[in-house]
Amino acid sequence: MNEQFKKRLKRTGMLAAVALAVGAMIGFMQAGTQNNTGKNATVIDKGSTPAAVPGVQVGGPFSLTDQDGNAVTDKSYPGYKLVYFGFTMCPMICPTGLQKIAKTLDLMGKDGESITPILISVDPERDTPAVMKEYVKQFHPRLVGLTGTKEQIESAEKSYRVFASKTQDEATTEYSMDHSSFTYLMSPDGQLLGLYRDSDTAESMAEDIKNKL
Ligand code: NI
After folding, report:
1. CB half-sphere exposure, 211, CA atoms < 13 A
2. Which of 32, 125, 132, 173 is the least buried, fewest Cβ under 10 Å from its Cβ?
3. What is the Å distance from ligand 1's center to 5 Cα?
4. In the chain, count of helices (H) and strands (E)?
5. Residue 193 C-alpha to ligand 1 middle, in angstroms?
6. Helix (H) or strand (E) holding 144
7. How much is the mean pLDDT over the chain?
């Protein structure tokens, strides 16, 4: 192989890798999107998970407020974390997802105790620390509820590649939120170890997480 050909091959390979990564990200963002109004609630499941895409970082530092009003960061929870983005007024998907996280931890027994479950609000306007406190205790005694300023939440959403936007429900004066609903398993050093969808069961999650601890 001559030098020029090798160079060209390398460049083509890199372009292909970038195209793949971008394609996977788009697939990822579409795959977990839920519609809380119940319209177009079909979950599009395509594309590989970002965990399989080299160079695409998912998850990272955040700076938020916990349900007791304390300023916290990702470093406040040094062990394994199961992170979920949602909001307390979500009628269906978030409660189901949070119940599943609680069941997963229970199924894992002693192993589950090393994992901190965390809900990060995509609706900081309504989800104050006090509202989060009332909400999280309904699901799991160790579930942490984090909220923050609009900027803090947007920054956390960005690092986890979360899609969230307001929608108006014509039936009420209240707005709802469309948002992606993945559960992220994060390692103590902040790496994404697993990504779970609405369609995953607590049993399959518990099994997969046990293998990854
Ligand atoms: Ni929701």
Report:
1. 7
2. 173
3. 51
4. 5, 10
5. 23
6. strand 144-146
7. 82
Q: How far is the CA of 13 from the centre of ligand 1 (A)?
A: 39
209 token code pair: 């997480």
Q: How far apart are CA 90 and CA 96, in angstroms?
A: 10
pLDDT in tens, 181-196: 999 999 999 999 999 9
Instruction: Give the closest residue to 184 by CA, choosing from 60, 47, 56, 36.
Output: 60
CA of 91 from ligand 1 middle (Å) equals 7
How far does the centroid of ligand 1 lie from the alpha carbon of residue 115, in Å?
Answer: 22
Contact at 8 Å (CB) between 163 and 61? no
Partner residues linked to 74 by β-bridges? none
Which residue type sits at 20? Answer: L
Measured between alpha carbons, how far is 45 from 115 in angstroms, rounded to an integer? 27
Interval between CA 36 and ligand 1 midpoint (Å): 6
The full length of the chain comes to: 213
The pLDDT tens digits for 129-141 are 999 999 999 999 9
